[in-house]
């Protein structure tokens, strides 16, 4: 099987299809992903890191569950469907990695073009109509 077949069977992009496959095909997968979701709320509320830059207790619990329980389940599904193992650049559950990946996909704005609105030379004409 391939990524295409996995996505056709479970719908959505790869990350969602993997989570749906974990929930459907692994007996304890639903509970594992539910627990991860319950741990993510307090970790996000704590800000993930404290003032000194260390991970908070809540964030450590989230990462531990992700590393020890969810990642092995995901690797089982990846192996079953013939997908490559998760790479370090593919860790989209981490908010900072997700933001970096999103900015890398964003096209660059040409020099001299404003971010939004009218071009700079016609901005004064905006309110005179």
Structure description:
This protein is 56% helix and 0% strand. The chain is mainly α. The chain has a domain at 1-83. Helix 2 (14-25) crosses helix 3. The chain is flat, with a radius of gyration of 21 Å.
How big a fraction of the residues is strand? Answer: under 5%
N-end to C-end Cα span: 61 Å
Number of H/I helices: 5
Helical percent range? 55-70%
Number of strands: 0
Overall geometry:
flat
Give structural attributes:
flat, mainly alpha, 129 residues
Describe the secondary-structure layout.
Layout: H1 3-10, H2 14-25, H3 29-45, H4 57-80, H5 95-105
Give the structure's gist in a few sentences.
Helices cover 56% and strands 0% of the residues.
